[in-house]
Write a structure and sequence with these properties.
Blueprint (H helix, E strand, L loop, with lengths): L1 H13 L16 H10 L1 H16 L4 H25 L5 H18 L5 H25 L4 H25 L5 H15 L1
Length: 189
């Protein structure tokens, strides 16, 4: 089963476009733009809700879940700052696409993997959130802090929504839904 999932991920990634999925052209200087973007940017919407689903499916305290959401937000902010500082770097788009399938694989394993494996998977997911932020930092102009604040508020709400959904409908089959929506996104873009 692991081999099939790995081959599916490789095949899907090989079809992924090289164009940035950060949706260039949106206004990235205002709080309202940052607030709306995680909702209107499908790649971010999928990643944030799926990460919340993953946390919701794990048997963790609310304090632990809040800490992990905080870690993901920190990576998002560091990504925005880094992207704004360093500019376009090759491979960011591939990391964004990969993150969607990594979180899906982590969701699948949430019900059977060891604690050590799940800690590594959650850490990897948090690390990959960096690239979602980085892509926006590259295109951000003007008041990056306002954009980042708006984006952090929406990102928190989306992850919290995912946590609640994951707690209500905890199933490894959620990962199949995340992978299917991610594949559709990759093929459409």
């Amino acid at each position: 089963m692991k081999m099939v999932f790995r081959n599916l991920a490789i095949a899907t990634l090989s079809l992924s476009p090289v164009a940035a999925m950060a949706h260039p052209g949106h206004e990235s200087t205002a709080f309202s733009s940052g607030l709306l973007h995680p909702i209107t940017g499908l790649d971010h919407l999928i990643m944030l809700v799926a990460f919340g689903l993953l946390l919701g499916c794990l048997r963790l305290s609310m304090k632990a879940k809040a800490s992990l959401i905080g870690g993901a937000l920190a990576m998002l902010v560091v990504g925005v700052m880094s992207g704004h500082q360093f500019g376009l770097v090759s491979g960011v788009e591939l990391a964004i696409v990969s993150s969607l399938f990594v979180v899906s694989a982590a969701l699948w394993q949430a019900f059977s993997a060891s604690q050590t494996m799940m800690k590594a998977a959650v850490s990897l997911c948090i690390g990959l959130v960096f690239f979602h932020g980085y892509a926006h930092g590259v295109e951000a102009q003007g008041t990056v802090a306002q954009f980042t604040l708006g984006m952090a508020i929406s990102a928190t709400a989306l992850m919290a929504l995912g946590v609640k959904l994951g707690e209500l409908a905890a199933s490894r089959w959620l990962s199949v839904g995340v992978a299917a929506v991610s594949s559709a996104l990759v093929l459409v873009v």
